[in-house]
Automatic annotation (TrEMBL), chain A:
<dbReference type="GO" id="GO:0019814">
    <property type="term" value="C:immunoglobulin complex"/>
</dbReference>
<keyword id="KW-0472">Membrane</keyword>
<keyword id="KW-0964">Secreted</keyword>
<dbReference type="InterPro" id="IPR036179">
    <property type="entry name" value="Ig-like_dom_sf"/>
</dbReference>
<keyword id="KW-0391">Immunity</keyword>
<keyword id="KW-1280">Immunoglobulin</keyword>
<keyword id="KW-0393">Immunoglobulin domain</keyword>
<dbReference type="InterPro" id="IPR050150">
    <property type="entry name" value="IgV_Light_Chain"/>
</dbReference>
<keyword id="KW-1064">Adaptive immunity</keyword>
<dbReference type="InterPro" id="IPR013106">
    <property type="entry name" value="Ig_V-set"/>
</dbReference>
<dbReference type="InterPro" id="IPR003599">
    <property type="entry name" value="Ig_sub"/>
</dbReference>
<keyword id="KW-1003">Cell membrane</keyword>
<protein>
    <submittedName>
        <fullName>IGH + IGL c32_light_IGKV1-5_IGKJ4</fullName>
    </submittedName>
</protein>
<dbReference type="GO" id="GO:0002250">
    <property type="term" value="P:adaptive immune response"/>
</dbReference>
<feature type="domain" description="Ig-like">
    <location>
        <begin position="2"/>
        <end position="99"/>
    </location>
</feature>
<dbReference type="InterPro" id="IPR013783">
    <property type="entry name" value="Ig-like_fold"/>
</dbReference>
<dbReference type="Pfam" id="PF07686">
    <property type="entry name" value="V-set"/>
</dbReference>
């Protein structure tokens, strides 16, 4: 199975900060990568698909980049609603895998 | 309105069985590739398995921890997805979500999620 490694696992930031989360795949997944935001007690919400395509309705401060094995999710200016946990997910193989998650906390 | 509604969760003893259902509405269920994703308390997301649409072969794939114990099926006439869970272990305790993706194949970037149903495996 393809392993997905996210870093950092926890990130402390302030409103207005630029935030970057990294996701590394154990082998090439082309651009078959999605990013999700999850808040406590809620289902995940799709933010980015195919590495860099912004899901409809998601604010433009969210962006994704990368291909192959290295990917990033960037929040250009952190807003109060963005404090949450973020997951990457590969869908290149028949067996899908998620990263371990990055919790974005208030500094 | 596009909607997925899971049901069937509950408390079950180790070694027991449980069947989850997921009722879909607001989209063409028969064309959808449907997955189950679970989340143990305080832990991250874990993909459980997927069933493709019948037009794409109707095949199933499973994560290693559940392969041979869990079975995913679908009834397109009822717009319903199922997860049959047998030989349950305490580590299967989690919220189980059904989910699907709308974008071009592979339909595995999940933009539609249910609210989740809790499964607790405990003696």
């Amino acid at each position: 199975d393809i392993q997905m490694t996210q870093s950092p696992s926890t990130l402390s930031a302030s409103v207005g900060d630029r935030v970057t989360i990294t996701c590394r795949a154990s082998q090439s997944i082309s651009s078959w990568l999605a990013w999700y935001q999850q808040k406590p007690g809620k289902a995940p919400k799709l933010l980015i698909y195919k590495a860099s395509s912004l899901e409809s309705g998601v604010p433009s401060r969210f962006s994704g980049s990368g291909s192959g094995t290295e990917f990033t999710l960037t929040i250009s200016s952190l807003q109060p609603d963005d404090f949450a946990t973020y997951y990457c997910q590969q869908y290149n193989s028949y067996s899908l895998t998620f990263g371990g998650g990055t919790k974005v906390e208030i500094k | 309105e596009v909607q997925l509604v899971e049901s069937g969760g509950g408390l079950v003893k180790p070694g027991g069985s449980l069947r989850l259902s997921c009722a879909a509405s607001g989209f063409t269920f028969s064309n959808a590739w449907m997955s189950w994703v679970r989340q143990a308390p305080g832990k991250g997301l874990e993909w459980v398995g997927r069933i493709k649409s019948k037009t794409d072969g109707g095949t199933t794939d499973y994560a290693a921890p559940v392969k041979g114990r869990f079975t995913i099926s679908r009834d397109d006439s009822k717009n319903t997805l199922y997860l049959q869970m047998n030989s349950l272990k305490t580590e299967d305790t989690a919220v189980y979500y059904c989910t699907t993706g709308s974008y071009s194949p592979p339909y595995d970037a999940f933009d539609i999620w249910g609210q989740g149903t809790m499964v607790t495996v405990s003696s």
